[in-house]
From TrEMBL:
Keyword ATP-binding: no
Lineage start: Eukaryota, Fungi, Fungi incertae sedis, Chytridiomycota, Chytridiomycota incertae sedis
Compartment list: Mitochondrion outer membrane
One GO cellular component term: pore complex
Name assigned to this protein: Mitochondrial porin
InterPro entries reported for this sequence: Porin_dom_sf (IPR023614), Porin_Euk (IPR001925), Porin_Euk/Tom40 (IPR027246)
Cell membrane is among the record's keywords: no
Keywords annotated in UniProt: Ion transport, Membrane, Mitochondrion, Mitochondrion outer membrane, Porin, Transmembrane, Transmembrane beta strand, Transport
Species for this entry: Boothiomyces macroporosus
Main location: mitochondrion
Gene that this polypeptide is encoded by: POR1_2
Length: 286
């Protein structure tokens, strides 16, 4: 069967999603998604930090023309940051995606703009982008793969300074029911090994180990986690690391278009201390 490898940032994604998603910790979140009859999708996000009480939100409008492979997204945040993104997929050639992403903070005149191109076909997935105002800096990554095996590398080059600012590499194996990956980032100082398995249709399990050799006396951080589907409308997630931090999350679809999630991160070595974090998220789809 044809094998198109994932993008560089998506190697190890199943394990990263297992440990990172569906744990709304330390805040109360609200997300509302609506779609107009002419196909414009509006998304409103709100986030209240439980510790500081600060509220941040943004509104996003997304227009998609599938016949032309065009997607245009506008964003406005409560920090008064205006953003726009234009994507063209398969319009120039099959497997080619063009992306232009820009933002502006009018109060301070801060501008950001990044132009990128992505190409994917059987056995290869490569991306490059140019940050027009920071440096400018050229980013690039590529992943090649066959029969489930993947290997890739990424690099960033500061044009004005004429020097490489970051580089890394990744190796992995992707099968229908499990995947493993080894990532080295930050100029080969940060190492992450991960494993993810679909035990059956209702259970997922995974493990992840992280070592940062740039930190003095750095130990390996290890965490294990699982996802259990309770029924078609609910699932439970749990994770724990070798420092005794326990994460719990429960997500339930209350009805069509309404999803509720609650989560917490607890330090099992200091159960009586005020160091635990809880949070919740409510999502509406309309």
């Amino acid at each position: 069967m044809p094998f198109i490898p994932p993008s560089y940032s998506d190697v190890g994604k199943p394990a990263n999603d297992l440990f990172g998603k569906d744990f709304p910790v330390g805040s109360a979140k609200l997300e509302v998604n609506t779609t107009t009859p002419n196909g414009i999708k509006f998304t409103v996000n709100g986030n209240k930090d439980n510790k500081s009480g600060a509220i941040a939100s943004d509104i996003k409008a997304k227009y998609t023309d599938k016949s032309k492979g065009l997607t245009f997204t506008e964003t406005w945040t409560t920090s008064n940051v205006l953003g726009a993104q234009l994507e063209l997929v398969d319009s120039i050639a099959p497997g080619v995606k063009l992306d232009l992403n820009a933002s502006l903070l009018p109060e301070k005149g801060t501008k950001n703009a990044k132009a990128g191109v992505e190409y994917k076909q059987e056995y290869v997935f490569t991306r490059s982008s140019l940050d027009l105002f920071k440096g400018p800096t050229l980013f690039g990554d590529a992943v090649v793969g066959s029969n489930g095996f993947v290997a890739g590398a990424d690099v960033a080059y500061d044009v004005s300074e004429a020097k490489v600012t970051k580089y890394g590499a990744v190796l992995g194996y992707i099968a229908p029911l499990y995947s493993v990956s080894l990532l080295s980032a930050n100029k080969f100082t940060l190492f992450t090994a991960s494993y993810h398995q679909k035990v059956n249709s209702d259970v997922e399990a995974g493990a992840r180990a992280i070592w940062n050799k740039a930190l003095p006396n750095s130990n390996v951080s290890i965490e294990v986690g699982t996802k259990v589907v309770v029924d078609k409308n609910a699932f439970f997630k749990a994770k724990i690391d070798n420092q005794g931090r326990l994460g719990l999350g429960f997500t339930h679809t209350l009805r069509d278009g309404i999803k509720f999630a609650v989560g917490g991160l607890f330090d099992t070595t200091r159960l009586n201390a005020d160091v635990h974090k809880v949070g919740l998220q409510l999502t509406f789809e309309g």
